[in-house]
Design brief:
- The protein has 133 residues and is of the alpha+beta class.
- The chain has a single domain, classed as Nucleoside Triphosphate Pyrophosphohydrolase (Alpha-Beta Complex), CATH 3.90.79.
- It contains 2 helices and 6 strands.
- The protein has helices at 48-60, 100-110, and strands spanning 9-12, 15-16, 19-25, 35-36, 38-41, 83-90.
- The longest helix is centred in the middle third of the chain and has 13 residues, at 48-60.
- The mean pLDDT is 83.
Amino acid sequence: MPHPRFLVAVHLLLLRGEDVLLVRRSNTGYEDGRLSVVAGHVEPGEPVTQATIREASEEVDFFLTYRLGPDGEEPRNCEPEKCSELVWANLESLPADTIPYVRAGVESFRHDAWFQEFGWEPAESVRPHQRAP
């Protein structure tokens, strides 16, 4: 029996002080007009870290040696057909039109939570070595 396949996406928080870089989605058919972080799907066989590096390069021309601030260049919109603007927003006061799961992820980051599920019903409590019903 074949195993089910699930889409995996990476989300990158590019920070400048207390601000996070957001991209306004456009012409993608999903959450257009709303703000997200730099993100994208992992390609088949691609390591998650490589997908993150690729998406950063494709979307905002960000490379590992990139420096932000007075001595570095600002990110630029490399996909204007999919992103209508780049926005720096304070981590504590994201714009109202931020995609809900992106907002939840940033909130988790702010509270040092490195894992979260969003949009799923909570799982029933399972004791160690006990099968879920």
